[in-house]
Design goal:
The complex is a heterotrimer of chains A (95), B (478) and C (336). Chain B has 478 residues and is mostly helical. Chain B is built from 19 helices and two strands. A two-stranded antiparallel ribbon of chain B has the order 1-2. The chains are: A mainly alpha (95), B mainly alpha (478), C mainly alpha (336).
Chain lengths: 95, 478, 336
């Protein structure tokens, strides 16, 4: 395995752990949403590190496509989560 | 017919888009799509029964480069159950939700949920499964929050966050698999996967993510509020189908893709969690004050039974015995799907007529809504597992397998669970048959009562008496 | 660039990424957290470029950092309008009771364990030679796919079904947002500096979007990046307090958001019903069909992302642009 892949792969695991910890612990919704996005970024880094083949060679395009899909899915979910939170806050004010 | 494999996914999606673009005709479009999709599902089932496993390579690209769809006995049966439940619930909803603006917003989301379910059941590619899981999760959350009541929105938000966490873990597992084996196609992986750190970790991650989505104890905390606060048809589909889809994936991964990797210890862990789910869920259902909460906890418990099959499937010595047990598992899953959907629809009728679903105040329900009460009773029979329901056959296999492998603990848990189920069902029936001196006779809407009744009847009579094909179909496997 | 300096660059890059992630999650102030998250996304985009994933870098910068950041920031400001600033500090890590501290340590250990196991599995997975079956198959079939950018080929041809479902995911999210309620009133009209900026920024963004769409066939780019850039134009217009943010009303809007999945599904079904595999483009037509699908997808993605930012069912034309005193105005330059 290339050193670069190793480096980014290990960093990716660390990022996943960071996101996971905050997602499980934090009370604020916003932080949890950000944490889940950070977790996602970690998994994406894992995929892209796996796809990398070295400075001279073309990388494997399949994980790139997967990550692109993942980014769009993540933003959709974030948007829905924030809209739900907004509705919840509005209800709270009406009570 | 292999064509049906495409129609079963394309029709609900097309219907969703059509319902979106034609809001005034949304209900008609939706019910029409439901009928058409059910016909396709039946065609698919017949195709699998006559031709064996159906493969379809999307875009014409070979599996691995492209995405393959596969239908075997298990997925075809679950697809058929999905179609019948959604069809019944759609007819129910056509009378349950009446405001035009609400209908225009509801149907596209409903049909997108169905698209996700069908796509998930047929997918043969791990990353495609991730996308279908996300589609399923988002549409389920949007529907659970439909109506905008505070309790529903809060529960839906928690459901969404938990679901996202689960999806991320699933994706991490999928990434590991690609890193280790270079393909995402499940059929190829079934041949390639060998025991080792990659496979163990990937399976653990994917299973953890799916357990969150299938609400196995102790990761079940999000389910009761979400299913209890959602609109009745949504609760029906969530409990009967959505959590079942995640369970189906656990089954698929453990029995087919990672079959060589699974260890007895891991299977026992799943079984133990299942047992805890049965006991905890049944106990909470007994104490529930609201019908919908009772039904939601019952779902937690019933899913536990499904997981108790795993240690049996690991331990049973012969392939024949395993196949018979697996048939019991599927029978239990199918019966629960129909019964729970019928139960939630019936509860919805009561809630609409009385304005509440409190169990203590059910007096007179049997007098006012006899058909609905009968539906609840039938569904209850299936949930307890009394003959002739399909659940009886399923639990029988569970007990037989447990006795055969000497794992008596599952027998004990099943017995206690069934007793508790009897208790909480009879509690509801008892209150419903309470006598009210001057019951006001409500207007009953046939479109609401018939679906609930038919679903419950299928669970009790259809699957129980005509259940042999389940075992035959299961033999057609990927 | 020799390998040592590249290694140093990598280490520095990863250190900044990890620090930004940590800082974003550790800081209690909501707004700082979001801004650090946006910075995290941008540095991540640099990392993707470094790892030779320019398509992903574009998408990360535009969607992962830009649009997600805009969504989060709008949420922060919206809740600021509803709560006094003092309550903005999250109560995340204040509690020091023994049980909570124990729970915190347990979760930290769990996360560390997950990271460790993941790293162990990754090391084991990559111990063998890299699996090249699929990359080679992609390269071999690239000519038949109709485009020369391999990522676009995977997204729009080999694994087009994934992209179809992904467009359905976007649609579901926006329909869910619609079902939750009408959009908030917009922002106040912008001051002269921002309005002037808008006047030339928006056309540039539209041009860039068109270029990205066209370039996606042979260079980094594509429907998603183009759609996000177009959405950025819409977000800028909304922030500038404009009433018309480029979205049509009523039925036309529904057509727009349905267009992505709709065109994709129609192409697939037409091919299916004429005897070809579902989404199996004939080689001669592949490039054209992909461009057609990508154009529709770009418009749908842009509309969906702008609507996600707007946060609800769009107001009918003619309703007032804002309600007095309802919300703060992040659009005003020079403040904060």
């Amino acid at each position: 395995m290339l050193t670069t892949q190793l480096l980014y792969g290990l960093a990716a695991c660390f990022i996943v752990a960071l996101g996971l910890r905050t997602a499980l612990l934090h009370a604020s919704l916003l932080h949890r949403v950000i944490a889940i996005n950070v977790m996602g970024a970690g998994v994406f880094m894992l995929l892209i590190a796996v796809a990398y083949r070295g400075p001279g060679q073309q990388p494997d395009p399949l994980p790139h496509a997967l990550v692109l899909t993942g980014i769009v899915v993540a933003v959709s979910a974030t948007a829905l989560a924030l809209a739900l939170a907004r509705r919840l806050a509005a209800e709270h004010d009406d009570d | 017919m292999t064509d049906a494999i495409i129609w079963v996914v394309a029709l609900p999606l097309a219907g969703a888009l059509a319902a979106l673009l034609l809001p005034r005709l949304a209900t008609a479009v939706a019910v029409g799509t439901a009928v058409a999709t059910s016909v396709s599902a039946a065609a698919l089932l017949r195709g699998v029964a006559t031709q064996g496993v159906l493969h379809y390579e999307l875009g014409g690209w070979s599996a691995g480069l492209g995405i393959a769809l596969r239908a075997d006995g298990l997925s075809a049966m679950l697809l058929m159950m999905t179609a019948l439940v959604v069809l019944a619930a759609s007819i129910y909803t056509s009378a349950y939700i009446t405001a035009p603006a609400e209908r225009a917003r509801f149907w596209p989301l409903w049909l997108l949920l169905w698209t996700a379910l069908n796509a998930l059941l047929l997918s043969g590619d791990l990353f495609n499964l991730y996308v279908t899981l996300e589609l399923l999760g988002l549409s389920a959350v949007a529907l659970a929050a439909f109506g905008g009541k505070r309790a529903a929105v809060a529960a839906a938000l928690r459901y969404l966050l938990v679901g996202l966490l689960g999806s991320m873990m699933f994706l991490a597992g999928v990434s590991l698999i690609y890193a280790g084996y270079g393909t995402l196609d499940m059929a190829q992986l079934a041949h390639m996967v060998t025991a080792g750190p990659t496979a163990w970790t990937a399976l653990a991650l994917m299973t953890a993510g799916l357990l969150l989505k299938t609400a196995l104890f102790p990761l079940h905390f999000w389910l009761p509020p979400a299913h209890a606060s959602a609109p009745a048809p949504v609760s029906a589909v969530l409990s009967a189908l959505v959590v079942k889809a995640a369970f189906y994936l656990v089954l698929r991964l453990w029995l087919h893709v990672f079959a060589d990797v699974v260890t007895p210890a891991a299977a026992n862990l799943l079984g133990a969690l299942g047992a805890a789910a049965v006991l905890w869920g049944s106990w909470q259902a007994l104490q529930a004050e609201r019908l919908k909460l009772l039904a939601a906890y019952s779902t937690v418990a019933q899913l536990g039974y499904l997981f108790m099959f795993f240690p049996l499937l690991q331990a049973l010595p012969s392939v024949t015995a395993r196949d018979v047990a697996a048939g019991g598992l599927v029978m239990l899953a199918l019966t629960h799907g129909f019964a729970k959907a019928g139960l939630f629809l019936a509860i919805g009728i009561i809630q609409q007529r009385s304005g509440h679903d409190s169990i203590q105040q059910l007096d007179g329900t049997a007098q006012r809504l006899p058909a609905t009460t009968f539906s609840i009773a039938l569904a209850g029979v299936a949930l307890i597992g009394l003959p002739p329901s399909g659940a009886f056959l399923g639990k029988w296999q569970l007990l037989a397998g447990a006795v055969a492998t000497g794992q008596w603990v599952w027998v004990v848990v099943t017995a206690i669970g069934s007793l508790l189920a009897m208790a909480y069902i009879f509690r509801v029936i008892g209150h419903a048959f309470g006598h009210q001196s001057y019951p006001n006779l409500p207007v009953t809407v046939a479109r609401e009562e018939w679906p609930a009744l038919l679903l419950a009847a299928v669970a009790v009579l259809g699957l129980g008496l005509a259940g042999a094909p389940v075992w035959q179909l299961l033999e057609i496997r990927v | 660039m020799n390998s040592t300096s590249l290694l140093v660059f990598d280490v520095l890059l990863l250190v900044s990424i990890l620090s930004l992630a940590w800082a974003s999650l550790a800081t209690r102030d909501a707004r700082n957290s979001v801004i650090l998250f946006m910075a995290f996304g941008l540095v991540l985009a640099v990392a993707w470029s470094r790892l030779m994933a320019p398509d992903v870098a574009l998408a990360e910068a535009a969607i992962g950092s830009g649009l997600s950041g805009a969504l989060l920031l709008a949420a922060v400001y919206r809740s600021r309008g509803q709560q006094p600033a003092a309550q903005q500090q999250s109560t995340g890590e204040h509690n020091t009771s023994a049980a909570t501290v124990a729970a915190r340590w347990a979760v930290t250990l769990l996360s560390a364990a997950v990271a460790g196991v993941l790293a162990w599995a990754l090391l084991h997975a990559s111990g063998s030679a890299p699996h090249d079956t699929l990359p080679l198959a992609i390269a071999a079939n690239l000519d038949a796919s109709g485009v020369s950018n391999p990522v676009t080929a995977v997204l729009l041809n080999f694994r087009a079904y994934d992209t179809l479902l992904e467009l359905a995911v976007l649609l579901t999210a926006v329909l869910g947002i619609f079902a939750l309620g009408p959009a908030a009133a917009g922002y106040r009209p912008a001051g002269p500096v921002f309005a002037g900026l808008t006047r030339w920024l928006v056309p540039l963004l539209i041009l860039a979007a068109g270029y990205l769409l066209w370039a996606g066939a042979h260079a980094p780019g594509g429907a998603f990046q183009a759609g996000a850039t177009l959405a950025a134009a819409g977000v800028v217009l909304r922030l500038a307090g404009r009433q018309h943010i480029g979205l049509p009303a009523g039925g036309t809007l529904r057509v727009l958001i349905a267009a992505g999945a709709g065109v994709f599904l129609t192409v697939g079904l037409v091919l299916f019903m004429t005897g070809r595999p579902f989404l199996g483009y004939p080689t001669a037509w592949a490039g054209t069909l992909i461009l057609l699908i990508e154009s529709a997808a770009m418009l749908a993605i842009a509309a969906t992302l702008v609507l996600a930012f707007v946060g609800g069912r769009p107001q009918a034309a003619g309703t007032p642009a804002h309600t007095a005193g309802a919300k703060p105005v992040p659009g005003n330059p020079g403040k904060e």
